[in-house]
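Crash report, auto-generated. Payload:
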Amino acid sequence: MCGIVGAVAQRNITPVLVEGLKRLEYRGYDSCGVALHVDGKLQRSRSTSRVVDLESQIGDASLQGFTGIAHTRWATHGAPVSHNAHPHFSPNDEAARIALVHNGIIENHDELRDELRALGYVFTSQTDTEVICHLVDHMYNGDLFDTVQQAVKRLHGAYAIAVFCREEPHRVVAARQGSPLIVGLGEGENFVASDAMALAGTTNQIIYLEEGDVVDLQLARAWIVDADGRAVTREVKTVHAHTGAAELGPYRHYMQKEIFEQPRVIGDTLEGVTGITPDLFGEGAAEVFKKVDRVLILACGTSYYSGMTAKYWIESVAKVQCNVEIASEYRYRDSVPHPNTLVVTISQSGETADTLAALKHARSLGMLHTLTICNVSTSAMVRECALAYITRAGVEVGVASTKAFTTQLAALFLLTLTLAQVNDKLSPDAEAEFLKEMRHLPVAIAAVLALEPQIMAWADDFARKENALFLGRGMHYPIALEGALKLKEISYIHAEAYPAGELKHGPLALVTEEMPVVTIAPNDALLEKLKSNMQEVRARGGQLYVFADVDSRITSGEGLHVIRLPEHYGLLSPILHVVALQLLAYHTALARGTDVDKPRNLAKSVTVE
Ligand code: G6P
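Recovered output after restart:
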């Protein structure tokens, strides 16, 4: 999703801007651009290709400057074409006075566009961003900082913007409301960016702007005012941001690498866990866990499915009521709040706009006990929640989440055990046994990864299909959902998941010889029921692809393909089964030749609603 970098310096800033864009590439984008102040004029370069192409374009044009802004765009308003790419100019010609980049969505853009058109502004893009750019130009009063403070009052919606002006060569002004933005402080130079990672290697002195903040960046100052125009001091943090995408090593794609990293990152996520204690979730967790009598999980995408899995664990082991809600639904629906709720957000990035908004919504309803399971310790989600468990998946580059999911599950299982302990539902023996199983997870996952050759053989069949069904029961139903999501995201095969018991209530009508039906069949109490569902599929000619456990008595036969997972893993079984489904999606996509790490239309970090 959109990324912003901006700089004011006394050196050519182009390499910092381009490097920043490269570090933001992981979010997903479809065009990119840079604008610089060059000899009293605004100049820019934009591309609908990758940042490396933009870099050579900039090199060919010898574009250099001391002040500039840059952007990666993930299209919302208007197609991903060059004239919609940021930075936008106003006026949009040689005489450009204002340059602006934006992340977010301006909801009143139609109204503002009409107003600006009536004033004679000519629009050359379909974006809501161009509206802000012309608005700033229209309101410009000789002081860009003051102008932007006035202009943002006219905007409804979410934005992070960075803007500079021909008349004020050593100044970049930036503002945020609903979209992330940070300030990076240097020696006689200052920066702004969507996240600290974009500035890794340039500065680690970071200020996280708060909602409504507007910042005036000059060579020797970064002056911040809040939404009411009052000067504010925000804490400067030393942030050791990851230096971006790790090397691919022997892997073809980041997704493949990330799937194979899972034994290690699960180990990292559990490192230091010597026993179950509320302290794992931060200071004050013990009191909070004692007060709460129910859990509300809020998340999006893959993180939502980890929440769904946790519901089965929390209700069965801790005996605590647990609801799981899709953040974008929860934030807008009327719900019945309960003050003794532990609100748990789950997020890989910690910046997902809907999840952040759902968290704020829950708080506004009086639910103040908040905890996040998050992969980025410096993210807005961690800053907003009172308690946190940081998963240690490391930087996840593949848009389709893999290792973030399994580390979330590991963290959520720890939460389950902790809630169980607080509620006297966890005997010391059970605690020791569960912890032993958790510590063995890296080995158990490695054994699932060793099934890759068998899964590759299935992937060849799947690559020729256009539809697939995934079935699971109980806590493996969310895993079926995640398997279907992985397949559709990266191979573009239409895939749906159902709780196997629902098969006869609709999806069975789709089953023909052309329909592969992936079944997650661990050797648990529901296995016999599941076998009946499988019969229903076979009786209609459907092709079954079954992930069974080592000890389940299901054998391959006509139309029935079976891969056995090496161990039956009880409550933690979803963590193993999902790894097999990740490999199936990956190899199917590979066989279809799609862009596995950057699937079409999708973004890694979804910072707009
Ligand atoms: C996007 C990503 C998914 C992710 C979802 C939620 O859709 O492509 O992989 O699950 O956002 O993101 P979060 O960072 O909040 O987990």
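Post-recovery validation: The pocket of 6-O-phosphono-alpha-D-glucopyranose is lined by residues 300-303, 347-349, 352, 355, 399, 401, 602, 604, 606 (CB under 6 Å).
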